[in-house]
Specification:
Layout: E1 2-5, E2 14-17, E3 28-37, H1 39-46, E4 61-69, E5 81-83, H2 94-97, E6 121-124, H3 127-130, E7 132-133, H4 140-160, E8 168-172, H5 176-187, E9 191-196, H6 199-207, E10 212-215, H7 242-250, E11 254-259, H8 264-272, E12 274-282, H9 294-299, E13 303-306, H10 315-324, E14 333-338, H11 342-348, E15 357-361
Parallel strand pairs: 8-9, 8-11, 9-10, 11-12, 12-13, 14-15
Antiparallel strand pairs: 1-2, 3-4, 3-6, 3-15, 4-5, 5-7
Helix pairs in contact: 4-5
Length: 362
């Protein structure tokens, strides 16, 4: 099969012919119909994930058709249209028995623990626990984006943060995760404020339901060591004080903030933007050495809520909202590329995060 292969960290990967995976007992092999390009793939390419062993094939947001079924798998057959969370849970441990598949200690993640979906075929373990049947009305491009960014945002906003109608919700970082969160929070009738350095991302945030956008001048981009500076957005210039603007827009602070990027600076801004007893959602992976104002957490009775993915059994509520038209994740897709174009798109994440979601067609 054709696949994107990383042979050295930080060195542009290439399209190569490699052996296709075989189905393992309890697992399946999918023909990849669509796979998303995510910043987590960039981190893996840079060598930030200790689970990766070179040579390696990245990719963890995917949808496709079952091409082969392993021994012991029931309820699934060749040709079924499916997607999966990026966390493939074992289904038998204590956390899985309690329904917390997203924190399974035995989890396997395609594109990290083993070769992923930037390829024509990908293997998936623990099929009966992790496969999600796609309705015929849901196309593969849209379904691919559900497994990581959209599902992660849905669980964070809806199930962990428990966002309610009328609440002020501030989303820091408007990449794929952030824009998904904007759309989901707006669908819950929250008053959403989107913060980013990229004016194009802020325009999309308005389209997806943000009531206000705040142009940040710079902030560190999730472990990259780079900062971004952009031109004018809504107000004609970047906000000199993001926190002050948010406090003014919310009348004293938001009920909920979310760091959708993973940045020390964003975390500090998010906590300072909360009103007393507010809730902070941490979804972006943070660099080491982040220091929190714990005194503020205690004195203001703030809640720090980590959220990591979403288990397969929690998908029905989200899929129902998509089917009803209340959520439109297809609108987040702004770019479709081929496997040959994927290495350059991966490398472009070094300097900036493009607005919207990029989908790869292997």
């Amino acid at each position: 099969m054709r696949a994107i292969v990383i042979e050295q960290y930080g060195v542009l990967p290439t399209v190569q012919e490699v052996a296709a995976p075989e189905p393992q007992a309890g697992g399946v092999v999918l023909k990849v119909e669509a796979t998303g390009l995510c910043r987590s793939d960039w981190h893996g390419w840079q060598g930030h994930d200790s689970d990766i062993v070179l040579p390696h094939v990245p990719g963890h947001e995917l949808a496709g058709t079952i091409a082969a079924v392993g021994a012991g798998v029931t309820g699934w057959q060749v040709g079924d249209r499916v997607t999966t969370p990026f966390i493939c849970a074992c289904g038998t441990c204590e956390q899985c028995r309690e329904g917390n598949h997203q924190v399974c200690p035995n989890q396997l993640q395609p594109g990290f623990n083993y070769w992923g979906s930037f390829a024509e075929y990908v293997a998936l373990p623990y099929a009966e626990v992790n496969l999600i049947r796609l309705p015929e009305s849901l196309d593969f491009d849209t379904a691919a984006g559900l497994g990581c960014r959209f599902a992660t945002s849905f669980r964070a906003i809806r199930q962990v943060g428990k966002v309610r109608a009328g609440e002020n919700v501030v989303i820091f970082g408007c990449g794929g995760v952030g824009l998904s969160a904007v759309m989901i929070a707006a669908a819950l009738d929250a008053r959403v404020i989107a913060v980013d350095t990229n004016p194009e991302a802020l325009k999309l945030a308005r389209t997806y339901g943000a009531a206000h956008t705040v142009q940040a001048s710079t902030y560190g981009a999730a472990d990259t060591g780079h900062a971004s500076t952009y031109g004018a957005a809504d107000a004609g210039q970047a906000s000199p004080d993001v926190v002050r603007e948010i406090l003014d827009l919310t009348g004293g602070g938001a009920q909920v903030t979310m760091d959708a990027l993973g940045s020390n600076e964003l975390v500090q801004q998010a906590l300072r933007s909360l009103r007393p007893r507010g809730r902070h959602l941490q979804v972006g992976l943070l660099p080491s050495g982040v220091q929190l104002d714990v005194s503020r957490l205690i004195g203001q009775e703030l809640e720090w809520l980590g959220s990591h993915g979403m288990p397969a059994h929690a998908y029905p509520e989200m899929l129902d909202l998509v089917a009803s038209g209340n959520l439109n994740p297809a609108d987040l897709i702004t770019n479709r590329i081929t496997l040959e174009q994927a290495p350059a798109a991966l490398a472009a994440l070094t300097t900036a995060t493009p607005a919207g979601v990029t989908v790869i067609h292997p």
